[in-house]
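User: I'm designing a mutation panel for NAD-dependent dihydropyrimidine dehydrogenase PreA subunit and want to avoid disrupting the core. Could you give me a predicted structure to guide residue selection? Please restate the sequence first so the numbering is unambiguous.

Assistant: Good idea. Sequence first, for numbering, then the predicted structure tokens:
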Amino acid sequence: MIEIVLRDRCIACDKCVEACPTDVFVRGDDGVPLIARQGDCQTCFMCEAYCPVDALYVAPDAHPLPEPPDVTELAERGLLGGYRRQIGWGHGRTPGARRAIGPVLPSTSQVIIS
């Protein structure tokens, strides 16, 4: 379930808002998404996968955690952006970098058509 939106990393690109199939987020007055309907989260990880700066943390649990996770510990354990890395999106991206990039697509020279 979505647990954290890191304001200091967020670039207000709205990719998480757009990717969420259950409209868990609303855009805050400053552009940073807010978790408005945590109970509607399906733990699909799409928001985390699409976040270009690893500003979100989705816990693999289907229920809210009893206490907010320690962001420093999550970062040290490589869990911020962990799902994105597991699926291979954003290869070469610097964790926490404040730049907006999408998934890495192969160049035409790497595409094999059979």
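For picking mutation sites, this is relevant: The chain is about 20% helix and 10% strand. The longest helix spans residues 71-76.
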